[in-house]
Every structure is written in structure tokens, then in C-alpha cells.
UniProtKB/TrEMBL annotation:
<feature type="domain" description="GFO/IDH/MocA-like oxidoreductase">
    <location>
        <begin position="140"/>
        <end position="266"/>
    </location>
</feature>
<dbReference type="InterPro" id="IPR036291">
    <property type="entry name" value="NAD(P)-bd_dom_sf"/>
</dbReference>
<comment type="similarity">
    <text>Belongs to the Gfo/Idh/MocA family.</text>
</comment>
<protein>
    <submittedName>
        <fullName>Uncharacterized protein</fullName>
    </submittedName>
</protein>
<dbReference type="Pfam" id="PF22725">
    <property type="entry name" value="GFO_IDH_MocA_C3"/>
</dbReference>
<dbReference type="GO" id="GO:0000166">
    <property type="term" value="F:nucleotide binding"/>
</dbReference>
<dbReference type="InterPro" id="IPR000683">
    <property type="entry name" value="Gfo/Idh/MocA-like_OxRdtase_N"/>
</dbReference>
<dbReference type="Pfam" id="PF01408">
    <property type="entry name" value="GFO_IDH_MocA"/>
</dbReference>
<feature type="domain" description="Gfo/Idh/MocA-like oxidoreductase N-terminal">
    <location>
        <begin position="8"/>
        <end position="127"/>
    </location>
</feature>
<dbReference type="InterPro" id="IPR055170">
    <property type="entry name" value="GFO_IDH_MocA-like_dom"/>
</dbReference>
Length: 365
């Protein structure tokens, strides 16, 4: 990342718990700085600033609109409830503020496209805040998965993201309130699962998406647990590709990804948040076979570790800020790669929800 010269000046819109982590990431990143914080009350913004040891020069606002009117702010990080994204994301884009948006991006792709159209019309950079894409481990995994000699063709994928919220969470958290985050576990945890699957498939949409009839809903109809399968068909292929995922608010912590190819396999247990901040690992095997009489294997999976200079959230801020600097300082067009990545994830998430609502029938894309 570039040195801290004319850093991208961030405004944080909303003081959700995740904003603490991103505030720290902005502080760590050499090309970014927090210059403003807004909440629904000035007192809450002040509490956030104190709690996170922000500079006394940071502007604190009791409304989101005030932050968007601040001429010092280049970009906004927006960790608001999903139902509020479209209003404030569109307004941010209209004010010329580059947008780092928490996931899930929107309640459906129609709303997502409204936000994205506003970003494109106003020449601002868009990225969703899925941090794991930016860890150097992710690049190393992609390198191996893309090697036709070591891995071959992708045949099967499984991802999971779950955690046990507990009674207080399941009663009061915004993620289980239909007026705030109506997608529940599918939007919060399933976003990662779908994103990992689509990342593995190079963002190629599946042919069909089918939810499995094991969905658990709360009394308000918000998803607490769901499972789905995705299928890719191609006439020239000897075998189809299939993916499954599981997401839940009522199961033990998981954040795993496994990919099986025609020549290799990859396993990672902590793809969303690494077990350690300074390095992350995964297992990879290629050409594994049973030995004579099937009493063992000819090789064990390689344990691969990838060190990182900055936490993955700081890498995300660094990449986003680099793109914004290109727009702000060099007159470049925003990079649409991250918007396309988010949109594909949103399309598949919509299809899972449609399958659930339609009695678990297959949805064709």
C-alpha cells in the first residue's frame, strides 16, 4: 500500500459494533484516515470517538446527512441495517462520496442496482465490506485452484458460516428484525458462503439454485438457518459442478470452505476470519490416491500458511483507498470489479430466498 500522502478521508456512517473494527483498520492503513463519524445522536458519535481513541479533530455528527455534507469526507463506510442502505447509499453517491458498504448489500438485486446506478452516474467507487477477499491467503488459494495440472476442474464446493447467537441475540439483534435486516442468517452469514462459492467459480452464475427444505424461521419470518444447492451444467463437461452451503444463527461457529477438483482438493476452516491476525493457513492436496490394499494414502495434504503485514480489514481499506485515490487524484474511472462481485452474490442470494418462498423449487438463472 502507498505511503500516507493525501490519504483518503473516511466518514463512518453508523456506530455498529463492526464499525470499531473498520475504524481500527482505517487507522492502520497507510493511505486512509477517519475524519468524521455520524450516528443518530451526537452523544453516540462522541462515545464512539472516545471508545475508539479517535483524534479530537474528527468531526462528530448527530445525523447522517450532516456527514454527507462534510466537504472533507472523500468516502463513507456504511454499516447501517440493510433496509437503510438504499436511501443513504444513493444519497452518498449523489454527494460524490465513494462507498464502502457493509454486507448484505441490499434486500434484493433491484434495490442493489438502484444503488449501483447512482454510484456509476456520479463516478464513485463501490465496494462491499467482505474482508476475506483481501487477505493474501485468498490470492494463494486462487492460484492453486486455477492450476489445471494441480487442481483440474472444479467438481464440488461446500461452504458454511454459522454461529450461536443465544437468546438475547435471537430476541433483540437487528439481524432478526424484519424491518431492519429481513434476510436474517441468509443475508448475514449466507452472504459469505455464496461469495466464496462464486469466487471459486470465477463469478459464473449457476444454472439452478435450490433451497433445501430445512429452513428455520423465527416468529417474524426471518431466516435463522438455511441450506441450498447450486448447480452448473455444461454440455461439453463430463460432469456437472455442484455447490452447497449452510448458514445459521443457531449452530456452533463455522466458517469453512472445501473445494474438490478433478485432480486436487482444498480445505480452509477459517476463510471469513482467520484464526490468527498475522497469518492464515489452508490445506491442499493434489494427486492423492490410496496405497495398496487401501490401508492408507500415498500423501498427506500440504499445510500452507500465508503471512500478512496488515490485518485483512486493513488490506481491504488499503485496496479501496487505492482505487478511490485513482479516481480523486488521477481522474480514473471507478473499478467495476467489486460491484460485479457483489451483484453476482446478491443475485444468487435472491434466488435462494425465492426458492424458499416458492416451496423449495429450483430457481433458474
Amino acid at each position: 500500500m502507498a505511503e500516507n500522502e493525501n490519504p483518503i478521508r473516511f466518514g463512518i456512517m453508523g456506530c455498529a459494533e463492526i464499525a470499531r473494527k473498520v475504524s481500527r483498520a482505517i487507522h492502520i492503513s497507510p493511505n486512509a484516515a477517519v475524519v468524521a463519524v455520524a450516528s443518530r445522536s451526537a452523544d453516540k458519535a462522541k462515545q464512539f470517538a472516545v471508545q475508539n481513541k479517535l483524534s479530537p479533530n474528527v468531526n462528530l455528527y448527530g445525523s447522517y446527512k450532516e456527514l454527507l455534507d462534510d466537504p472533507l469526507v472523500d468516502a463513507v463506510y456504511m454499516p447501517l441495517p440493510t433496509s437503510l442502505h438504499v436511501k443513504w447509499a444513493v444519497m452518498a453517491a449523489q454527494k460524490g462520496k465513494h462507498l464502502l458498504l457493509e454486507k448484505p448489500t441490499a434486500v434484493d438485486v433491484k434495490v442493489f442496482d438502484e444503488m449501483l446506478d447512482s454510484c456509476e452516474a456520479n463516478g464513485v467507487q463501490f465496494m462491499d465490506a467482505s474482508m476475506w477477499y483481501h487477505h493474501p491467503r485468498t490470492g494463494k488459494m486462487k492460484e492453486l485452484l486455477s492450476d489445471p495440472e494441480l487442481f483440474g476442474r472444479v467438481r464440488a464446493i461446500h461452504s458454511s458460516s454459522s454461529y450461536y447467537g443465544g437468546p438475547q441475540f435471537l430476541e433483540n439483534n437487528i439481524r432478526v428484525k424484519p424491518e431492519l435486516d429481513s434476510l436474517g442468517a441468509l443475508g448475514d452469514a449466507g452472504w459469505y458462503c455464496i461469495g466464496a462459492i462464486m469466487w471459486t467459480m470465477n463469478q459464473k452464475l449457476p444454472t439452478t439454485v435450490t433451497a433445501i427444505p430445512t429452513t428455520v424461521l423465527n416468529s417474524s419470518g426471518v431466516i435463522l438457518t438455511c441450506t441450498a444447492s447450486l448447480h452448473w451444467t455444461a454440455e461439453e463437461e463430463e460432469e456437472q459442478t455442484v455447490a452447497t452451503f449452510y448458514c445459521s444463527f443457531i449452530a456452533h461457529e463455522t466458517m469453512g470452505l472445501s473445494v474438490c477438483g478433478s485432480k486436487g482438493t482444498l480445505f480452509v476452516e477459517d476463510f471469513i476470519i482467520p484464526f490468527e491476525e498475522s497469518c492464515a493457513g489452508f490445506r491442499f492436496s493434489s494427486g492423492a490416491k490410496f496405497v495398496d490394499m487401501h490401508v492408507g494414502w500415498n500423501s498427506k495434504p500440504r499445510e500452507i500458511e500465508v503471512a500478512n503485514e496488515f490485518p485483512q480489514e486493513a488490506m481491504m481499506i488499503g485496496e479501496f483507498s487505492r482505487l478511490v485515490k485513482g479516481v480523486r487524484d488521477r481522474g480514473l474511472r471507478p473499478d467495476s470489479t467489486w460491484a460485479r462481485t457483489s451483484r453476482v452474490t446478491q443475485v444468487v442470494m435472491d434466488a435462494v430466498k425465492s426458492s424458499i418462498d416458492g416451496g423449495y423449487k429450483a430457481v433458474y438463472l
